[in-house]
Amino acid sequence: MYDLHTIDEASPKPSMYAVRNELVANKADWQYMLSARTLQLAIADLGKAWQNFFDKAQPDWGRPAFKSKNAARQGFKTDRAKVVAGKLRLDKPRGVKDWYDIRVSRHADLSGTLKVVSIYRENGQYWASLPFEVELENKPQTGKNSAVDVNVGHLNYTAGVINTLPKRLGKLYQRVKYYQQQLAHKRVVNGNKATKSNNYAVMRAKLQRDYRKVANIQHDIMQKFTTELVNNYDKIIIEDLSVKDMQMSHVASKGLQRSMFGYFRQVLSYKCAWYGKKLLLADKTYPSTQRCSKCGYIKHGTDKITLQGNAQHQTKHNEYICYNCSAILDRDENAVANLLDLI
Questions:
Q1: Tell me: the pLDDT tens digits for 104-133?
Q2: Which end of the chain, N or C, is more open, meaning fewer C-beta atoms within 10 Å of its C-beta?
Q3: How many Å apart are CA 342 and CA 283, to the nearest integer?
């Protein structure tokens, strides 16, 4: 019997190397047609997942979440890939004679040390994730500060407004809604047999294609905007929003999800850490919307501004009228100015 455990009896978890050696020694014939590193890296990922499980100090501590059996993502990893003349060269499987380099379809910076490459199939197409290890240098100091007020559909900051839901996304979301309705109708009419039909698979592929287009457009907007922030400002302050508390209805929840507040904060956080810029978080209770940036007056009770404005005083949703100094301000610009006061 092959021992798959560590020598330490107090910690009888499986040894990654012992499991790897056992599976490699008992490879099936079809496995020799794959990359030599596919099995080893898969076992290494599983070992890291269980190592994190036994370490309760991890931020996302818990049991490893395995892939869904109903919608498994087909893919593999390799650490022997190379970039040769602008093309991706994967390690050649055993017994394969004809082997070609893969042309990179998008213009990208391929400089740096190539790490573990992930190849996966999605929506009938193959994709490659190419992580490069590069040396980062701190951005030059500009002596400027900025604040970002996040809203559904747009982000306001010191230099202007960024639209996170451009018009081209509207058509894509309409198509996504149509495909979802058609797929749901097929499942209701045909039951479990619906998912096995060719028409269902074709429509689901169209739905996945449009979802990817939406994600690419929004990720491109967020990446460019966060890069602009770290290039032009030394200190950036944003609100520490509680998104779950803001989801008052299914309509508001959809708008919040599409505005990608969490993704914006995630990207901005690691870019500030990369380039030596400082990211500040305003307290959740800070009244950036209700406070007057001119005199400091804070609205209370029925005077507060809501998403629809203020019905009692008949003000619009984008207006801020101070009842102390009579200043008339744009609601979002006023919020940005209030956040800047915290720096």
A1: 766 667 788 888 888 888 777 788 888 888
A2: N
A3: 10
